[in-house]
Amino acid sequence: MKLQDFKSKFLQSWVQFVLMDEKGNLMETCNTLFSFPENYGNLFDEIPFLDSISQTLADLKLGAEVAYPCINVELLDFKGFCDYVFYKIDYNNQHRILWILMNFSDHYTHLIDLQQQRNESVIQKELLEIEKKNAILAGELLKYKNEELKRIQKLKTAFFSKVSHEIRTPINGILGIAQLLRENKDPETVEEYAGIIFETSKHLSTIVNDVLDLSKIESDKISFEKISFDIRSVVSAVTAAFVYLGKEKGIQVISNVWDNVPKLIVGDQVRISQILYNLLSNSLKFTKEGKISLDVQVHSIQGDQIEIRFEIKDTGIGISAENLARIFEPYEQATADTTRNYGGTGLGLHIVQQLIKRQNGSIDVASEPDKGTTFTFVIPFEISAAEPSKVTDDTSINRNLKILVGEDNPLNQKILTEFIKKWGFRHETVDNGHGVITKLGQSAFDLIILDYKMPEMDGLETLQFMRANFGEEINAIPVILFTGELDQAILDKFNKLNVRSVLNKPIEPKLLLDTIAKIFYNEPRVSHFDLHYAIEMTDGNKMLIHDMIDIFITTMPEEFQKMKELLAHGDLAALRKAVHKVKPNFHYMGIRKARKILDLLEKDLDSGKHKAQLPTKINSLQQITEAAIERLKVEKLNWVN
Amino acid sequence: MGNSKKVILLGNFGVGKTSLVRQYVFRKFSDDYMTTIGVRIDKKMVAVNGQEVSMIIWDVAGESTHQKIPNSYKLGAHGIIYVIDVLRPSTYLSIEKEISSLEDLLPNVPIVKVANKIDLLTEKERIEIVNNLPLNDYVLCSAKNGSNVEDAFNKLAESLI
Ligand SMILES: Nc1nc2c(ncn2[C@@H]2O[C@H](COP(=O)(O)OP(=O)(O)OP(=O)(O)O)[C@@H](O)[C@H]2O)c(=O)[nH]1
Ligand SMILES: [Mg+2]
């Protein structure tokens, strides 16, 4: 085709032609849409569009064409939408490229609106459909949740009917026996009945505690203390109970806390005991022979943050894979065969799991039927920089306290006053807040123990009244408060009223005594023995440790026998030697209480002074030794292979 | 010319092709949707391994399939960015077919798949949706906050030289 033909065919105001050579050099154009300025450079260099299709143009065959519709053009002073057509032509015997630009801006601008509408409505529809689908999914989820809720509701109902049965049976038992007790005063029978009542009440108390714990967990009312405590004493206290129980069934119960576990950690000692107690009871319940072990070690440590891993392993009947999946579900367990056969509410494991979870820990269980079960849980703690919390045993506190007890429940009153008497304190007891107020006006007290719930004037009202109406002297008297429900809200309330300690019911005498000691005596607890040195010395060789304890238990009474004889004969030189000989034994067993007396004894025997005090010193050394031996007898069981 | 590369953006309408180019070339973004008709050309110089490449980017109007796009647009392309919208399954349900027919049409032309609008997903949704996309190897982008936009274009640029 000749250029002339193009000119005549296309030369209209909305068309421009550009003629260039194959390298992009401008040859000729008409200036209908725009005009190139003088010394405008190479078109391929100047116009990116042309640059990007230069290869396509080069490949174009003579006489062929390529079209690009709807190009958004911003070129020199032209702005709009054009269709481009490129022809490869022969022009004066030279290959040339003819570029035709057709300005269809009006047409395309109109198209934009149509396309925009189309696209928007399609997208809108799509998004709507997705929303609909999500809504359906959400609906199905809701339906599932509702069904699940119904299922749990059903289990709950079954559970409560079972629990009320579980509660009614022991209560009826207790009532029956109490009736019998009234009629029969024969001391042996009374003893036997009291034993039955004790055991049955203990059982009942476990059930009630489980149910209360569960309801606390479900209503999210459970709170955790952050107090530094000695994890080893928690472990050994819990284990000691099971060593005995295990022995009755012929099952060995052992525990081991690894050396790298710090002495003191910050957390809730009571809850940890509860978890361990629950898991060990569970193991003991389902183990007929073999052994149960509790292993405590460091899981991870970072700065003062530590995760401790507890592993409770038994050789019991195990759990089938199917049951394993539901083992932590609260109401499932209660209705399962196992609880029927083995008793209990079946809530224990659920409570354990929740207690662990709420301390930011996790629990796992692995089990094989007939082989055994292993529970492993990890809980984060802080490593404590503090001294051990000050706990006391009942031999070490001063007995001159006068305590005012406000408690309405006769049974609790009885328990409190009996123990207070046993500990050697004096007391006056009243059964409501009015009584407390009256007594405070009449005489001086060192300590007030109050029950929260009392008729007429409860613990809270009593305290509020005291704080508002009494002087400094009375308000300085420390208050220990007992409550059936212990949660943060209650704690806060009483902390505001300056209550020294809030304790949970049922009354735990040991804990009460510890609390009293904490308030009045700053004596750190000195444990009866501490095997750290022995473990270190023997590299943890169980047999050796066991033998060392055994030797201590069997030889020490003989040694005291000997020392007393020497003392009676006045052979102080030989006595000195004898004391010197036994001294390392106390060191091995970590009986720190004996250290001071031993030192004094040695000094007195060396110097010949204070002869009159020798019998007293030897006697108290013997008492300390006997107390340690009592406990070592239990501990020894932990070190049998 | 020398090192000029024709790069085309394909994908359904509304997936964010124009937004990706605007973010990449001008570091701008707008929430308003203005559909592209035909094609708009932009240019950006990039250095790849010390080599200057001039990317001439063809921002093509979106269509449900590339078959609806003039062949001349695709002709001579050196690279393709195929964009999908993570929120709209319709933009990726037939991506396998689309990609394989593009590979037939333009053999040996690298294709980078971009999953756009990732900013609209939570971490959880992101994992779930991305795991369920057909094909893999997407560059997860947000034209809105710019994340990975540069990476997507660079990834293509690298395979161009
Ligand atoms: N939130 C979010 N919105 C985006 C993103 N990218 C694009 N959009 C929005 O999506 C809509 C469509 O974006 P465009 O870039 O115009 O899409 P396109 O692919 O060019 O659409 P067509 O030109 O019609 O093919 C616009 O409203 C943008 O604001 C993104 O990464 N995140
Ligand atoms: Mg666009």
From TrEMBL, chain A:
Modified residues (Phosphohistidine): H580
GO molecular function, one term: ATP binding
Alphabetical list of InterPro entries matching this protein: CheY-like_superfamily, HATPase_C_sf, HATPase_dom, His_kinase_dom, HisK_dim/P_dom, HisK_dim/P_sf, HPT_dom_sf, Sig_transdc_His_kin-like_C
Modified positions (4-aspartylphosphate) in chain numbering: D451
Keywords: ATP-binding, Cell inner membrane, Cell membrane, Kinase, Membrane, Nucleotide-binding, Phosphoprotein, Transferase, Transmembrane, Transmembrane helix
All residue ranges annotated as the HPt domain in the record: 541-635
Keyword Nucleus: no
Reactions performed catalytically: ATP + protein L-histidine = ADP + protein N-phospho-L-histidine
Residue span, Response regulatory domain: 402-520
PROSITE patterns: HIS_KIN, HPT, RESPONSE_REGULATORY
Record-annotated Histidine kinase domain positions: 162-383
Group of enzyme by EC: transferase
Membrane topology qualifier: Multi-pass membrane protein
Subcellular location: Cell inner membrane
The keyword rRNA processing belongs to this UniProt entry's keyword annotation: no
EC number: 2.7.13.3
PANTHER family xref list: TWO-COMPONENT HISTIDINE PROTEIN KINASE
Official protein name in the record: histidine kinase
UniProtKB/TrEMBL annotation, chain B:
SMART domains xref list: RAB (SM00175), RAS (SM00173), RHO (SM00174)
Keywords: GTP-binding, Nucleotide-binding
Entries under InterPro entries matching the protein: P-loop_NTPase (IPR027417), Rab (IPR050227), Small_GTP-bd (IPR005225), Small_GTPase (IPR001806)
Signal peptide: none
SUPFAM superfamilies on file: P-loop containing nucleoside triphosphate hydrolases (SSF52540)
Pfam families associated with the record: Ras
PANTHER family in UniProt: RAS-RELATED PROTEIN RAB
Protein name per UniProt: Rab family GTPase
